[in-house]
Inverse folding.
């Protein structure tokens, strides 16, 4: 399945986030709402998840064409992207025991989940 949702890394939550809305946490909660709205599904085992992160608008057309589909080797961290997705879908994410993940550049952000 392809879900046209921009992947977001799970931010470190602090107690003051309940009353002080930081941009990082607001962006994460919006991501959680979109995952619920789109009914994103993540199997407990055998899934292959690809995070497609959008390229910056400041990049030239030539650089965009070159980097499309290439591995994304900068921030956000791959484990934090997966953590955000797991927490958005599952109330208890300890049920996941086998998953393959990767992140790549793309023209628009999306999450691709293939069952193995």
């Amino acid at each position: 399945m392809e879900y046209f949702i921009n992947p977001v890394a799970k931010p470190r939550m602090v107690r003051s986030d309940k009353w002080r809305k930081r941009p990082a946490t607001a962006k994460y909660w919006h991501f959680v709402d979109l995952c619920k709205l789109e009914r994103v599904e993540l199997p407990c085992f055998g899934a292959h998840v690809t995070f497609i992160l959008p390229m910056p608008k400041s990049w030239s057309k030539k650089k965009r064409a070159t980097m499309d589909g290439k591995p994304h080797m900068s921030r956000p961290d791959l484990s934090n992207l997966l953590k955000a997705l797991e927490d958005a879908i599952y109330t208890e994410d300890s049920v996941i025991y086998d998953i393959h993940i990767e992140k790549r550049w793309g023209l628009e952000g999306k999450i691709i989940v293939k069952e193995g």
Summary: The chain has a mean pLDDT of 92. The first strand starts at residue 2 and ends at 3. The two ends are 12 Å apart (CA to CA).
